[in-house]
Amino acid sequence: MTDTMTKPAPINHWLGGKLTPGTSGRSAKVFNPATGEVAGLVDLASRDEVNAAVAAAVQTARSWRTVPLSRRAEIMFRFRALLDARRDDLARILTREHGKVHADALGEIARGIENVEFACGVPNLLKGGYSEGASTGVDVYSIQQPLGVVAGITPFNFPAMVPLWMLANALACGNAFILKPSEKDPSASLFLADLLKEAGLPDGVFTVIHGDKEAVDALLEHPDVAAVSFVGSTPIARAIYQKGTEHGKRVQALGGAKNHMLVLPDADVNMAADAAVSAAYGSAGERCMAISVVLAVGDVGDRLVEAIQSRLPALKVGPGDQPGNEMGPLITREHRDRVAGYVAGAEAQGATVVVDGRAQQFDGDGFFLGVSLLDHVTPDMDAYRDEIFGPVLCVVRVPTYEAGLKLINDNEFGNGTAIFTRDGGAARQFQFDCQVGMVGVNVPIPVPVAYYSFGGWKASLFGDTHMYGPDGIKFYTRTKVITSRWPDPATSRVDLGFPQNR
User: Fold this and answer.
1) Does the record bear RNA-binding in its keywords (predicted)?
2) From 173, 288, 394, 434, active-site residue
């Protein structure tokens, strides 16, 4: 526990391969959500500090891009090995600052490591094309080159995995990468920085600059930042995309979600209930791929709600560092209260509160909230329309597959969705019909493996490329096409006509 007379430890920037105290004079409190205590004070960068960090990154980017692909791959392999060896240490940091239970933190790290493994294949991923003899004596080939300095702005809910979505590919492609992590749980980014240094990444190629809107705006407006990746809420994603593109940047901005799980009458109800509980309440519901709405088709509703309800008393909610707990606290006291407000609001608007997470009592001052199950939710209710981002599962009764599909397609978000059924034809039709970027068939959280790409449709994505995987390589490089001729000088002549390929 933190002594009330002891000043919380500072959390500094990572500049030039080392921890560097901020100079702005501003900082923000970082809490331990399980206790409510202040765990640290994170520096908040000024615009001048961001500008200096970008200037330094420009210099290192020039040398890093010339490092051979084999050497970059070697560093990624070493980084992967270090992450694997130190995953427990990193998980403890996630639990302390985010609140997620240790097992959930380990799962986050495992998915992040998959992205590093993908980046280890960069020599193959950056192979261009070559056409010999495209015209008489002319060869044409393409190469992929890094952009220079790129930045990532990451959310609080996955302080290790989402940065790894971005930095692994960005660095492997030859860019200098500036990470602006969430100021709510910033220490994981510094842990990754230290491992990258140990893996052999040259100083200055990877930078961590902490901050708030002032730092974000400075990155978006700086002319030497070529591209920005973002994951967060839809309003902020939209604003970042608009500002970044206005300043001539390549931007991929992933926004919010309202993920539906369509359960047909022929589904295995026990399997669907297990999936709904796991997908709704894992990580306290603070993930953009959480299932927040179950669409129960026809007469499956009563059986499904009963099956979900029967599983909830066994869930263990408590501090993430205590063995056996399955769900930890929410990130802040304000967010906990906001989520609880949706339960109250749904009840006032006519929903049935089957399980009320507000009634569960917890010791201490942590930001805990029990799980809630709401039945007979309708599309006009706030709990249905908004992204709650907490341990609240809404059940909407629909008469038919078509009615459920319409709700999915009419929703402003298009991040993830799932269908549970034994009917292969219905599942296949669903994957064609739904207007959503990531689809699960009897899989509640269809996060793609690292060699595919992650991203939704509609208001869940701003930009034309998804995150990580092949789209990540595309985003962090630009293609150059070279047309070359090595003719006999005797054949050279002036020709003002349009170039011919024959």
Assistant:
1) no
2) 288
